[in-house]
Amino acid sequence: MGWPKGLICSYLTTAEHYSLPFKLPDDLWFYAVKFATLMRNSIVTTSTKESPRAKAGLTGLDISTVLPFGQPVIVNKPKTFSKLHSRGWKGYALCPSSISFGYLIYVPGAPQDIIDTRHYRAIRDEVGT
After folding, report:
1. DSSP string spanning the chain?
2. pLDDT tens-digit map of 43-82
3. 0.85 exceeded by the pTM?
4. Cα–Cα distance between 97 and 45 in angstroms, integer?
5. Residue 71: which of 119, 127, 5 has the closest Cα?
6. CA distance 89 to 14
């Protein structure tokens, strides 16, 4: 028995491809699909000499600045109990936000698991391949 070929199968494969190397929870599959769709629509095709986003009249993304799915980041924690507490959470970049100019970041153990923020820094030495 195998998976039937179709839309759901390809979305599940995309989600597994992006979330398994980083050991992220299975319920983040939606963000993996959103990231894959965004990347596909941002790349310029050779036949039309522009990206699908540009063809639709949408502002484009600079694909060189998009963080990889699951990229470890440090997110600014705005309120702490004292100056001795940590002012940052370790999280994982999911995809650019469609609401703000920031990123959706998964932070395990935070009051909200998914944070929409512009206040983050990538941890470059832990990039998954």
Report:
1. --PPSSHHHHHHHHHHHHHTTTT--GGGHHHHHHHHHHHHHHSPPTTTSS-HHHHTTPPP--GGGPPPTT-EEEEE----SSTTS-SEEEEEEEEE-SSSSSEEEE-TTSSSSEEEES-EEE-GGG---
2. 766 667 777 666 777 665 667 678 888 888 888 877 767 7
3. no
4. 24
5. 127
6. 27
